[in-house]
C-alpha cells in the first residue's frame, strides 16, 4: 500500500504519492492551506482509480473525458503524465520516464496505490 507524504514549506503544503518501494510516483502542486492539500489528496484518491489514459504522443489520439491521465513527451523527450480531475484541473504530475512502458507502469502504480493510501506528515 502506498502513502501520501505531506510536506510543509514556506510556500505552502504539497504531497507526494509514494509506492511501497519508496519511489515517488506522483507529486502535487503547492497548496496555500492544509485543507487545500487534504482536498487535493482526496481528489487523487477518488479520480486516479477511474481515470482513462489519453496518450498525447500518438498521432490523432483519442481525447478522453475527465478524469484522465494525460501522457505526453516533455522538451527533453521523456514521457510524463498528469492526472486531471473531473473539473479539468491538474491534481498530480509524474517525473520524466525514458520509456513509454515505464510511464504507463507509473500510471498503473498511481491507480493501484492512490485509493487506500495513508496520509503521513513529514
Automatic annotation (TrEMBL):
Tree of life domain: Bacteria
Residues of the DUF1508 domain: 13-55, 74-120
Pfam families found in the cross-reference section: DUF1508
Database matches in InterPro entries: DUF1508, UPF0339_domain, YegP-like_sf
Membrane-crossing segments per the record: none
UniProt protein name: DUF1508 domain-containing protein
Organism listed in the record: Succiniclasticum ruminis DSM 9236
Amino acid at each position: 500500500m502506498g502513502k501520501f507524504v505531506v510536506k510543509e514549506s514556506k510556500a505552502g503544503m504539497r504531497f507526494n504519492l509514494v509506492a511501497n518501494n519508496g519511489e515517488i510516483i506522483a507529486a502535487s502542486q503547492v497548496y496555500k492551506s492544509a485543507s487545500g492539500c487534504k482536498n487535493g489528496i482526496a481528489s487523487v484518491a477518488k479520480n486516479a482509480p477511474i481515470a482513462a489514459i489519453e496518450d498525447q504522443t500518438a498521432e490523432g489520439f483519442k481525447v478522453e473525458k475527465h478524469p484522465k491521465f494525460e501522457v505526453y513527451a516533455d522538451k527533453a523527450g521523456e514521457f510524463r503524465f498528469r492526472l486531471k480531475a473531473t473539473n479539468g484541473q491538474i491534481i498530480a504530475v509524474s517525473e520524466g520516464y525514458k520509456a513509454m512502458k515505464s510511464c504507463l507502469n507509473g500510471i498503473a502504480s498511481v491507480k493501484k496505490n492512490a485509493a487506500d493510501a495513508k496520509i503521513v506528515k513529514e
